[in-house]
């Protein structure tokens, strides 16, 4: 009877560890996919801004010779338009960055929840094993899970603070960009 209980607890523990590792792997892959999409977006937007600058410069170069006044006006208009595109690009990068961070925060919350559930299953399996072996091992086995739970809480709080800080920065950039174009 005791041997069956130990075997079941061991199987439960192994399954719980497998599920925890699976959740970590899935979360990591999802985060990496979001990072790649964000990087692609930044590069694509950057290329578009650069193309726009090239076209504007070509257009300006063709208009240099006709009349000086028109040239200066065209140069001024081109510079203002380039600045507006730069601001739009910067805002796009910041907004996409915030979305990626929010996604990471949600993913971290979900992973933390899954790991806490698995931690509880593992704790129960360890407690069953400890009851069969001796009461003195119970505290020893559950200590790492308490540590991991605290570590996940700290990680979640840090992620939340990072997202809030990034949002404040994005707001400041937007306000400065609007002031610069006004």
Oligomer: single chain
Q: What does the overall shape look like? A: rod-shaped
- Helical element count? 3
Pick out the low-confidence regions.
none
Describe this structure as you would to a colleague.
This protein is mostly helical. The chain has one domain. The chain is 95% helix and 0% strand. The chain contains three helices and no strands. Helix 1 packs antiparallel against helix 2 (68-133) and helix 2 (68-133) packs antiparallel against helix 3 (137-181). The radius of gyration is 28 Å and the shape is rod-shaped. 7% of the residues are buried.
Topology summary:
Blueprint (H helix, E strand, L loop, with lengths): L1 H62 L4 H66 L3 H45 L1
Helix pairs in contact: 1-2, 2-3
Quick recap:
By secondary structure, this protein is mostly helical.
Descriptive labels:
mainly alpha, 95% helix, 0% strand, rod-shaped
């Amino acid at each position: 009877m005791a041997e069956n209980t130990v075997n079941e607890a061991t199987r439960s523990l192994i399954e719980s560890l497998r599920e925890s590792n699976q959740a970590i792997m899935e979360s990591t892959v999802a985060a990496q996919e979001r990072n790649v999409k964000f990087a692609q977006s930044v590069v694509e937007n950057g290329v578009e801004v650069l193309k726009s600058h090239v076209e504007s410069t070509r257009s300006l170069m063709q208009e240099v010779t006709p009349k000086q006044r028109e040239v200066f006006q065209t140069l001024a208009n081109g510079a203002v338009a380039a600045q507006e595109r730069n601001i739009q690009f910067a805002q796009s990068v910041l907004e996409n960055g915030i979305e990626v961070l929010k996604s990471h925060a949600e993913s971290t919350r979900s992973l933390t929840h899954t790991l806490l559930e698995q931690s509880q299953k593992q704790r129960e399996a360890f407690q069953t094993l400890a009851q069969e072996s001796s009461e003195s091992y119970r505290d020893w086995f559950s200590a790492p899970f308490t540590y991991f739970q605290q570590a996940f809480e700290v990680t979640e709080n840090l992620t939340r603070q990072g997202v809030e800080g990034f949002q404040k920065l994005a707001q400041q950039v937007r306000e400065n960009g609007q002031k610069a174009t006004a």
